Amino acid sequence: MKNFCVELILQNSVTLKVLLLICYQFLCSENFMIKIQNISSTDTFLVRHPVLRAGKPIESCVFDGDNLPSTKHFGLYIKEKLVGVVSIFKNKNTIFNIENQFQIRGMAVLPEFQKKGFGENLVKHCENYVKNVNGTLIWFNARENAVPFYKKLGYNKIGNPFSIADIGIHYLMKKEIG
Ligand SMILES: CC(C)(COP(=O)(O)OP(=O)(O)OC[C@H]1O[C@@H](n2cnc3c(N)ncnc32)[C@H](O)[C@@H]1OP(=O)(O)O)[C@@H](O)C(=O)NCCC(=O)NCCS
């Protein structure tokens, strides 16, 4: 009986240690440390600049309408480090005969944090925001390289590719929300 009790205590202590280790690993994992919050337009430059305007002057990171009250900027933080940004503008594209349209701009994730699901989190955050303000459509001009990313999230290409000076080939993409 005594041996049985000692064995039980030992086994439980091993189980307890394994459980504690799993909890510790979960608490330290990147996914647990993620938060998305509203940021200022100038905060976005920390990611816009290296990812979208590399080698260009910092002024090239300023977008028309960045500081309008209807424009929102979201930042994804991992352990307090800003690693991804996106901005959403209330902006009607006359191609779409629909009210309450929003445009995504400045979608960027630092290279070392790409392909980990953070871009998807940011787009979904925009979609939730648009739903909450009764928006009906999100559109944007997608860089050619990012089209497969947006397609995975349910966005469709509209029309032919077009070129934006100094940046490259883009596609108009959209998704109806709600
Ligand atoms: C495009 C970008 C924002 C995507 O962010 P990300 O964090 O790397 O993307 P995620 O990890 O959330 O990807 C979600 C899915 O899309 C896929 N994906 C992401 N980028 C892709 C790409 N360029 N080509 C093909 N698939 C891609 C991922 O593999 C993932 O697929 P899965 O769910 O099957 O695993 C990011 O790569 C980036 O900042 N690129 C440079 C700047 C840029 O092009 N911005 C867009 C301007 S329009």
Keywords:
178 residues; alpha+beta; Aminopeptidase; 2 domains; 7-stranded mixed β-sheet; 4 helices; binds coenzyme A
Tell me what you see in this structure:
The chain is α+β, with helices and mostly antiparallel strands and 178 residues long. The protein folds into two domains: 1-32; 34-176, Gcn5-related N-acetyltransferase (GNAT) (Aminopeptidase, 3-Layer(aba) Sandwich), CATH 3.40.630. Helix content is 34%, strand content 31%. It has four helices and seven strands. The termini are far apart. The model has no long low-confidence stretch (mean pLDDT 92). Coenzyme A is lined by residues 51-52, 107-109, 114-120, 142-143, 145-146, 148-149, 152.
Largest sheet: 7 strands, mixed
Write the CATH architecture name of the largest domain.
Answer: 3-Layer(aba) Sandwich
Fraction of residues in β-strands: 25-35%
Count of extended strands? 7
Taken in chain order, the helices and strands follow as HEHEEEHEHEE
Terminal Cα separation, in Å? 64 Å
Structural class: alpha+beta
The unique ligands bound to this protein are: coenzyme A
What would the principal axes of the Cα set say about the shape? elongated
At the fold tier of CATH, the topology name of the largest domain is Aminopeptidase
Chain-averaged pLDDT: 92
CATH class of the largest domain: Alpha Beta
